[in-house]
């Protein structure tokens, strides 16, 4: 299992324990170019059942990661 797969599982099962840096790596791996956290655009995310849903600032649509890295992921 790769580091990214372990990170994905950690985000899925223990989202309260994931750091912002780990979340940023995971998001970049799944298609987000850059994650900004200035005062005007905070990234919000939550876990829905087995999916992880990331709600980015207004300009970016909501994206859902349904399978661990290595598989085909619909974003």
How many domains? The number is 1
Counting helices, strands and paired strands, the structural category is alpha+beta
The main sheet orders its strands as 1-2-3
**Which outline best applies?**
globular
Main beta sheet: strand number and arrangement? 3 strands, antiparallel
Number of H/I helices: 2
N-to-C series of helices and strands: HHEEE
Residues in β-strands, percent? 15-25%
Alpha carbon gap, first and last residue: 22 Å
**Radius of gyration, Cα only, in angstroms?**
12 Å
Total number of beta strands: 3
Topology:
Layout: H1 3-13, H2 20-29, E1 44-48, E2 51-55, E3 63-65
Antiparallel strand pairs: 1-2, 2-3
Short description:
With 75 residues, this protein is of the alpha+beta class.
């Amino acid at each position: 299992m790769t580091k990214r797969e372990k990170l994905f599982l950690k985000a899925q099962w223990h989202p309260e324990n994931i750091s912002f840096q780990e979340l940023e790596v995971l998001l970049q791996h799944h298609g987000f170019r850059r994650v900004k956290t200035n005062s005007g655009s905070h990234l919000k995310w939550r876990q829905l059942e087995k999916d992880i849903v990331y709600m980015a600032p207004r300009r970016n649509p909501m994206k859902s990661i349904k399978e661990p890295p290595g598989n085909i992921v619909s974003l």
